[in-house]
Write a structure and sequence with these properties.
- The protein has 250 residues and is of the alpha/beta class.
- It is built from 9 helices and 10 strands.
- It has helices spanning 7-21, 39-52, 65-73, 86-92, 138-149, 163-171, 182-192, 221-232, 234-242, and strands spanning 28-35, 56-63, 80-84, 98-110, 130-133, 156-160, 177-181, 195-199, 207-214, 246-247.
- Strands 1, 2, 3, 4, 5, 6, 7, 8, 9 and 10 form a 10-stranded mixed β-sheet that branches.
């Protein structure tokens, strides 16, 4: 005797299978590897996503984009990758990435700009101490590209591992300026208002693209697409813009 499975049962079975494949049990876990500079924005968007998806937990792993890409290549389990820079995304092997935001360089100076820094050439004035990130960091690579494009050569007071460390030198009086990304300055300035930002039209070419892509082999394909939709939505753009990013939806 043949038994026909009711459509409702088939649908339920598919839902359960999806839940098991994306975390197991009754809770689905969406794992997102994201550049450390996205900690605040993606943390906020993760809470929004969870609120709209009962039973779904978003787990973030923040770090340097290059290191995260290497972990993906080595088989670290993740569903979605948000990287700073095309090189890291390319290395990860994640296909069809979308650019969702951009960050641009600025000069950070103490409140009142006592060294009167208005452009890159002012960084070479006698007595002006400049903090740069290490070349391996996105802010370091971007800063050196901007300086080279402007024909400016200077000696840094140190090669810091990230923008926050470079800005700390300015705040502590160990540097008169730091060449870092807009979002670094926005985050640091929000702490105590001790920093100001100087725009640099010369650095129009020193812009960092932020890309997001689903990692091959994920069992949370539908959820990754929905999270990308959130990042590209008006809510996502609002959160990114508040952090100093320039949202991109194209």
């Amino acid at each position: 005797m043949n038994h026909v499975t009711p459509p409702a049962c088939v649908a339920l079975a598919l839902v359960l299978l999806a839940a098991i494949g994306c975390g197991g049990g009754g809770t689905q876990t969406l794992t997102v590897f994201a550049d450390a500079s996205l900690t605040g924005t993606f943390g906020s968007l993760g809470k929004t996503f969870e609120a709209a998806h009962p039973g779904v937990a978003v787990r973030f792993d923040f770090g340097g984009s290059g290191a995260l890409a290497q972990r993906i290549v080595q088989g670290a389990p993740t569903d979605l990758f948000a990287a700073a820079g095309t090189a890291a995304m390319r290395e990860s092997g994640a296909p069809s990435p979308r650019v969702f935001a951009r960050d641009s360089l600025q000069i950070a100076v103490p409140k009142g700009n006592p060294a009167h820094v208005a452009d890159l050439k002012d960084l070479t004035a006698p007595g002006v101490r400049v903090a740069l990130c290490a070349e391996s960091a996105p802010c370091g690579a971007g800063a050196r590209a901007a300086l080279a494009a402007a024909g400016v050569t200077l000696t840094s007071v140190g090669g810091e591992r990230d923008g926050a460390k470079a800005l700390a030198k300015v705040r502590l009086g160990e540097a008169d300026a730091a060449l870092v990304y807009r979002t670094d300055i926005r985050a640091a300035g929000a702490v105590d208002g001790a920093l100001e930002a100087v725009d640099l039209p010369e650095t129009a070419g020193a812009v960092e693209d932020y890309l997001i892509a689903t990692v091959p082999g994920t069992e949370c394909l539908a959820l990754t697409r929905e999270f990308v939709d959130l990042v590209l939505s008006s809510e996502g753009r609002k959160v990114l813009a508040a952090a100093g990013f320039t949202p991109v939806t194209g």
